[in-house]
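Blinded run. Sample ID left blank on purpose so nobody reads anything into the name before looking at the predicted structure. Input follows.
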Amino acid sequence: MIKFLRLRRGRSLWHRTKRIAKRARGSFAEAWELFTRKKRSVHHAERLFCSQPFERFEILGGGGERGDVYFCCQNWVTRSIGNMVESSVDEVWNGRSARQFRRSILNGTFEYCRQDICPYLQRVDGPVKRVSEVTDPDLLRIIREELTVLPFGPKDIICCFDQSCNLSCPTCRTKIIMETKHEGAILDIQKRLDEEALADARLLYITGSGDPFGSPYFRRWLQTMKRSSMPKLERLHLHTNALLWTPRMWLSIPAETRALVKAATISIDAARPATYAENRRGGDFQTLLKRLAFIAQLRREGPLEYLEIHMTVQANNFNEMPEFVELGRRHACDRISFHKMLDWDTFTEGEYASRAVHQPQHPKHAAFLAVLHSGALEDPLVNLSNLTELAAKTFPRASADANV
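Blinded prediction complete.
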């Protein structure tokens, strides 16, 4: 899930560097390099282009300033582009920080991107393409004219400004979060989006911060949306743990809004009941299977056109990766994604080290690599995301073949 650990404005470089060092569990020198590296082009045979800063508008809340806006997952970049509580959507979208970020893409430096973490830069897929492969007319104009101020608003709106959720997964939080104390701020952001952004949006993503059904604010928003207020919207993407996605909940959403729910991502993190109980604290695996059966039916019969399940890989579940692939295949999934475990300050240093099986010093790292390169993970539905670089380093030939 998209998280809320970010650098606060006004911190000294020293404190920023210490925080990066803690996240990465690496040396101070490595963290210092992340903050002092000079502008340089992404190393590739052909210049790359990322569409995110020209299309995406991700609004966060919780751990930092509520309303902070990013072009991408905040852990994959080094800065916010502004705050929509303090400024209008357009003032953030075409503000100074946004223009600087776009310039770094156009000149090929990717200066504000964390290339060591971003799975798109590692795989050259999704929003990252070779310049010669870009076909969208708006993006071609941007590249040709080197536009940093855009004549259109955000096309993809990612709503992560409410952390309310029915689960308290250890990799994400230490307790159940229900943001009733911040109701006013959450509803203000929703209102601002309704009035200033949704008219031009093509994608609305709810939510990478909690659960769209577990949050009373996102749930009510879904139940009261009007198609007329978002005439260009092509797709509503729900990111959920699925436990509250019941037939009754589904029917409480207006038919015209349900018809827009074209995509869903289900965070699961396990393929066995005991592991699920530990990794999805507060959840029940048998209930999950019932919900997955219902959602798979929506994928087979509509309106869903895309269904993904997601596993954050760690020491207690890496052996279940092949079973997770089968779980996805049984439930009509279009993608089965595996992501490395990141530190969101929910563990002590020792706890994180004991779980982070992707790190070379972990005692089970060799066993993890064996599973990572097992035949089951060669399924075309599998996406290794930010584990791709690790796969390439350890088995370069297999990784290259997988990405052809």
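Unblinding after everyone has recorded impressions. The mean pLDDT is 87.
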